[in-house]
Design goal:
Helix content: 55-70%
Radius of gyration: 18 Å
Largest sheet: 2 strands, antiparallel
Order of helices and strands: EEHHHHHHHH
Strand order of the largest sheet: 1-2
Structural class: mainly alpha
Distance between the termini: 25 Å
Shape: globular
Strand content: under 5%
C-alpha cells in the first residue's frame, strides 16, 4: 500500500513469487491447450512415456510432463497446494533455488518413469507438490538438529505413499511422490547448510 500525491492510499498487486506464478500460468495454458487440441499437445510435449531417444520431443517431455494435467480437478488439486506452500519457500530460499528444486524434480521423476514405466503416461505436478511440502517442513533446520515437523511430514506423506504403493497398487504415482519428497528433502538440507546461494 502506498500514498498518492493527494494523500490517498492505493493498493498494488505484488508479484512476490515469480517462479511459482509463472509455473501456475504455464500449467493453466497447457491445460487449455490440452482441451483445445483434444490432448494432442499433452501427449506430444507435456507427459512422459517411453519413446525414441532420437526424438527431441523425448527430452522436452522429461521436463514438460510437470506442466500437463489430466483435467481441471487434477490441475486445481496440485496448483492449490503449490500456491499455498511455494511463495513462502521462494521468499525464503530465493527464486533460483526453487526453480532448481522444480527442475530437478521434473527431470528425475521423468527419467525414472521413462525407464521403469514405458507403457504409461506420467503427467502432473504432484512430484513438485511433494518436493515443496517436504522442503517446507525443514525450513527451520539447524546444524545437528532435525525438525520434528520434518519427521512427522515425512512419516505421514511418504509413509502413506509407501502404504498405497504396496496395498493400493498405484506404484507409478506413488513413486513420483516419494521421489519428489526425497528431492525436496535433500535439496532443503543443502540449502539450509548454505551450500546453495540464495537469489
Amino acid at each position: 500500500m502506498s500514498r498518492t500525491d493527494s494523500g490517498k492510499k492505493t493498493l498494488h498487486i505484488s508479484f512476490n513469487s515469480p517462479v511459482i506464478l509463472v509455473f501456475t500460468l504455464a500449467c493453466f495454458i497447457v491445460l487449455i491447450l490440452d482441451i483445445v487440441t483434444g490432448g494432442m499437445t499433452t501427449t506430444l510435449l507435456f507427459s512422459v512415456y517411453r519413446s525414441s531417444l532420437f526424438s527431441p520431443f523425448t527430452y522436452i517431455r522429461f521436463l514438460g510432463h510437470v506442466l500437463g494435467h489430466a483435467g481441471w480437478q487434477h490441475f486445481i488439486g496440485n496448483i492449490m497446494l503449490i500456491l499455498v506452500v511455494g511463495p513462502l519457500l521462494e521468499e525464503k530460499y530465493g527464486s533460483v533455488n526453487i526453480l532448481i528444486v522444480m527442475l530437478a524434480t521434473a527431470f528425475i521423476t521423468g527419467l525414472v518413469h521413462f525407464i521403469f514405466f514405458p507403457r504409461v503416461q506420467l503427467l502432473g505436478a504432484s512430484g513438485i507438490v511433494f518436493a515443496l511440502i517436504l522442503l517446507s517442513s525443514i525450513t527451520s533446520f539447524q546444524e545437528g538438529k532435525i525438525p520434528a515437523t520434518f519427521i512427522l511430514v515425512a512419516v505421514i506423506y511418504i509413509g502413506e505413499q509407501v502404504y498405497d504403493g504396496i496395498f493400493v497398487q498405484d506404484n507409478i504415482a506413488n513413486l513420483t511422490h516419494i521421489l519428489g519428497g526425497g528431492i525436496g528433502s535433500v535439496l532443503g538440507f543443502i540449502m539450509n547448510k548454505n551450500k546453495m546461494n540464495r537469489y
